[in-house]
Amino acid sequence: MTLPLLATPTSSSSSPFSSISNAFDSGYVTAAERLAVIFLIALDLALIFWTFKDARRRIEDPVIVAVCVATAALFPFVGVLIYLILRPPEYLADVRERELEIRAMERRLGADQACPYCRNPAEPSFLSCPYCGTKLKNACRRCKTPLDPAWRLCPHCETPVSTLSPPTTTSARDVVSEPTRTRG
């Protein structure tokens, strides 16, 4: 009586990896491969579209935007990575907003002087507007430099600023409405 200790294979041409090879040849693996390829194509198209939208918001020149999109399309995944490294750090809207804020701060600080009457440019050293003749600042009594209305003394010669009250004007109506006194 002989006992078979090891089971012998039924076919002589089978290899030990034939079951694994048969698993990769199945319909499920083929379907998974096709789904993965479709997913990668969809991801690449989405990245190309994202590159286009992002480049349009960051770059003004349409030629450079087209180059960015072409790079993303010709070099899948790597082109988008190159764009991410080289793209401008700010959106165009943020750049414009920052420039407006800087311009507003300059106006508040007086760097962008203009005549309050005619809005033409006037340098800080002007005593009067050269366009309309409006008096912008008073001159120092001693050194004749322009003085800011809020200053109490001239910063150049330390002369105290005379605080002249504005001249009172009387109109003809005010004169007529005053009662006349008669002596009697």
Describe this structure in words.
The chain has 184 residues and is mainly alpha-helical. It has a domain at 28-93. It has six helices and two strands. It has helices at 18-24, 27-58, 62-74, 78-86, 92-109, 172-177; strands spanning 138-139, 146-147. Strands 1-2 form a two-stranded antiparallel sheet. Strand 1 (138-139) and strand 2 (146-147) form a beta hairpin. Helix 2 runs antiparallel to helix 3 (62-74) and helix 3 (62-74) packs antiparallel against helix 4 (78-86).
Give the count of helical stretches. Answer: 6
Low-pLDDT residue spans:
165-184
Overall average residue pLDDT: 80
Distance between the termini: 167 Å
Apparent shape: rod-shaped
Summarize this structure as a short list of keywords or feature phrases.
184 residues, mainly alpha, two-stranded antiparallel ribbon
In terms of topology, how is this protein built?
Layout: H1 18-24, H2 27-58, H3 62-74, H4 78-86, H5 92-109, E1 138-139, E2 146-147, H6 172-177
Antiparallel strand pairs: 1-2
